């Protein structure tokens, strides 16, 4: 079995298949042996686990998952990598690759079809250009993953795990915190990849809630407020909502709702937790 994190092995594999890296597809392959092992370990991958991977590349993280999981299904967009994976994963009979765009994949259906009776987890060294849309769509899809462990740009990892009122806190943070408990696991320097990206990375684990952490009448309305608040984060919450909700509410209605949930009317949206946004939307939309 080849060590797919060894730089000479990687170079030999890609030379053997005449493979060239695509910058557009975010192809930076891992060269650090401990990272895939740690991701598999932190995701508690074992013989009862069905692991789904986005973007297997030449199979570096995939191999660590295959060693522990009952089954591994990887979604890879670049069809040039299919013969490479057939070669590097030849020793694993619990591996399957689907040639598809992860952004267009129905992960709930994939779990239903491929992971019956298994504990589904998602693991990925994400191509950076799809980070926010894929995390958003995975959370909204309600695909029943127990955990989702992602390697992302360090700055994005900080954003996913940020606290209200901090610089990194944004709409994606609020969303992640409604659906899951986010944990920053460890940093991975740019030098751990071939080719080396311009920025450092970090691994984040999302433990998905079975039930939302609090009750809200309409999560859709709540996220409407979140998006409007962060679209103009320099403005006060009142002004951001006044402009961002297309005139649905008067200034007085917004001020009254903010006061009703216990905040000053000069507050900025970035100071509200996701639960505060939930309470605000319940009050604001009560009579709508
Ligand atoms: N997992 C490998 C590793 O850690 O070395 C490769 C990670 S590399 C950062 C990202 C991978 O995602 C590449 O294999 C790339 O071809 C694939 N990819 C890019 N866009 C994708 C998409 N929309 N859907 C599925 N895979 C994609």
Describe the protein's architecture and organization.
The protein is an alpha/beta fold and 288 residues long. The protein has helices at residues 7-16, 34-42, 60-68, 81-88, 107-114, 131-141, 154-160, 171-179, 219-231, 237-244, 251-260, 274-284; strands at 29-30, 49-54, 71-76, 95-99, 119-125, 147-153, 180-188, 193-194, 201-208. The chain has a seven-stranded mixed sheet. Strands 1-8 form a two-stranded antiparallel ribbon. The chain binds S-adenosylmethionine. Residues 25-30, 54-57, 60-61, 75-78, 81, 101-103, 125, 127, 130 line the site of S-adenosylmethionine.
Hetero ligands: S-adenosylmethionine
State mean pLDDT (0 to 100 scale): 96
Which bin fits the share of residues in helices?
A: 25-40%
Unreliable spans are none
**Helix and strand succession?**
HEHEHEHEHEHEHHEEEHHHH
How far the N terminus sits from the C terminus, by CA atoms, comes to: 62 Å
Q: Main beta sheet: strand number and arrangement?
A: 7 strands, mixed
Overall shape: elongated
Number of strands: 9
Could you say which structural class the secondary elements and strand pairing correspond to?
alpha/beta
How many DSSP H or I helices? 12
The fraction of residues in strands falls at: 15-25%
Radius of gyration: 21 Å
Q: Please, what is the oligomeric state?
A: single chain
Give the spatial strand order of the biggest sheet.
Answer: 4-3-2-5-6-9-7
